Amino acid sequence: MLQLRNVSVKLGGVEALRQISLNAGERRIGIVGRNGSGKTTLARVIAGLQVPDAGSAEIDGRDMARDRKAALRSVGILFQNPDHQIIFPTVEEEIAFGLIQLGRSRAEAAREVQTILAHFGKSHWASAPTHGLSQGQKQLVCLMAVLAMRPALIVLDEPYSGLDIPTRMQLMRYVDEVEARILHITHDPESVRHYDRVIWIDEGRLRADGTPSELLPQFEAQMRLWGGRDDLSDLAG
Amino acid sequence: MISLTSPVETWAHRVPAGVKLAALSLATVGLFALQDPWHLAIALAAVVALVLSGGLAFAAEAARSLRILLPFLGLIAVWHLVTGQLAEGLAVALRLLAALSLANFVTMTTRLTDMVAVAAWLLAPFRRFGLSTRALELSVALAVRFTPSIARKGGLLTEAWRARSARRAGWQVVMPLAALAIDDAEHVAEALRARGGVEPPEFTG
Amino acid sequence: MERNLTHIALFAALIAGLGLIPKFTLAFGVPITAQTLGVMLAGTVLGAKRGALACLLFIALVALGLPLLAGGRGGLGVFASPTVGFLVGWPFAAFVTGLIVERWRGNLALVSAIASGVGGILVLYVFGVLGMSVTLGKTLPEAALLVTAFIPGDVIKAVLAGLITSALARSRPASVLSRG
């Protein structure tokens, strides 16, 4: 169970999140909003990477930012750009890292890496250099690295941006099969249409909350309305 | 990433890395102790025989890596012809060739993982003084992982430059490249923290 | 902790990357390597300690056998060649450069250029000349004479390091850790 109580975050003097409160226990939750709406900051708060300036963020009663040990088992995060996530030169090292961080021995970690690679039918990737992978392949490695740690909740921060349609569809299939709860942050309504619940964030505030069928049409109508205007000229601050 | 280990498998690939490194250290000290050109010539002949024992293809590759010495050998030749101290010049040239060939021989016949293992063994005693071998391991992995990606971005930036300019890309490219390295460092630090950080919390059971 | 480590590793990678970019010339079409510029930047941007560690990490990777020096050179042979001092001196050069930028809170571009000159030329050449003197069997003044031709190129690099550091500070103030 994810619980946010009056979460506010300021980044460089700008209010990125303002008093966000929500309880969420659904298996598939989408968070939609425009670029700069505060979605990524919210993802970082939920994953425990950003300490809120006010309010609290807890998963199953534990503060993810302060209790990092609990956080490693409760929540994993998939970043927008896999190049920012992949730390190691080879696929197996990358996946093993999180497992070793959880206290597994190297031998145990190596076994679990084999298991997860085999589960995805990618056993032949083990010693492949991460640098040579395509963007979609890199994102899949990141997903496997997060899944290997078996967190109860996985936060996805725009994982499909920059991927072509076939790659996106394949990756979506993999994500849909994931057993863990998923909180998917995106500006693309299409990727969360089949989810249990959608939350709309706008200018750091919670603007709407409901099922995809009632909320997404409003969201799309608003996006098209804004798309007709020229708010690109406005500078922040 | 490509390492300098030779793909041609020689007998020396099977000699333990620690033995090769110890022998190299001793031999290099020895080379610098020798002064007589005759002794150094014999030493160089021995090194050449060692390199040739790896086969002709291997020796050719080894010879190519000596090219960086050419300007220095030319310099020594001119210098000692002018000063007339030919024996000394010969000694310096022979010593350089032997020392460099021998060092390259060890690099060419030792796999990266074996080299890393020796380094880890050498550094182990320093753990007592607070050296984190885990942090070291991570930073080596990170540097190896990000070198090709920074080089690639550098290539892309030079391309973008050439697309808009008739002149060749210059130092101005270094600034965005450094900025990218800094951005990457910030993001990776975050990704590292998301998975427990450099010193992961202790898990018992 | 994580930030220190990733900055050190990424700057080691930056120095390596600067040597790998194909057809990259620094100034006036002179093919001088940009890697020592990377060393100066490690000092001016990361500060003394982190800058020196970034260079140390880079040297360790070269010693382990990775071809990270300009032109794809690397391995133990580098440490037996006449230019050995110019490589071994990098951590010291970055350290002194960083120390000056940390302590002397003047105009960043100017201070960085001067610091790069002191660290990246003065300090580095002490090591470089020592290395040349030992490997080539020359006296120190003789060895020093041999490397004077490279000083103008390095002065240009020091000026560039100053310009780049101040540009970085303007575009993202938090990135210049030496002044943090």
UniProtKB/TrEMBL annotation, chain A:
PROSITE patterns cross-referenced by the UniProt entry: ABC_TRANSPORTER_2 (PS50893)
TM region positions: none
Pfam families: ABC_tran (PF00005)
Classification via SUPFAM superfamilies: P-loop containing nucleoside triphosphate hydrolases (SSF52540)
GO CC field: ATP-binding cassette (ABC) transporter complex
Family to which this protein belongs: Belongs to the ABC transporter superfamily.
Record-given protein name: ABC transporter ATP-binding protein
UniProtKB/TrEMBL annotation, chain B:
Transmembrane intervals: 12-34, 40-59, 66-82, 102-124
Lineage top rank: taxon: Bacteria
Membrane topology: Multi-pass membrane protein
Subcellular location: Membrane
Cellular component aspect of the GO annotation: plasma membrane
Record's keyword annotation contains Transmembrane: yes
Keywords from the UniProt entry: Membrane, Transmembrane, Transmembrane helix
Family indicated by similarity: Belongs to the CbiQ family.
Protein name: ABC transporter permease
The organism of origin for this protein: Alloyangia mangrovi
TrEMBL record, chain C:
GO cellular component, one term: plasma membrane
Keywords on record: Cell membrane, Membrane, Transmembrane, Transmembrane helix, Transport
InterPro entries in the cross-refs: BioY
GO MF annotation, one: biotin transmembrane transporter activity
Subcellular location: Cell membrane
Its membrane topology: Multi-pass membrane protein
One Pfam family of this chain: BioY
Transmembrane segments: 6-30, 51-70, 76-101, 108-131, 143-169
Family that this chain belongs to: Belongs to the BioY family.
This protein's name: Biotin transporter
Biological classification of the source: Bacteria, Pseudomonadati, Pseudomonadota, Alphaproteobacteria, Rhodobacterales
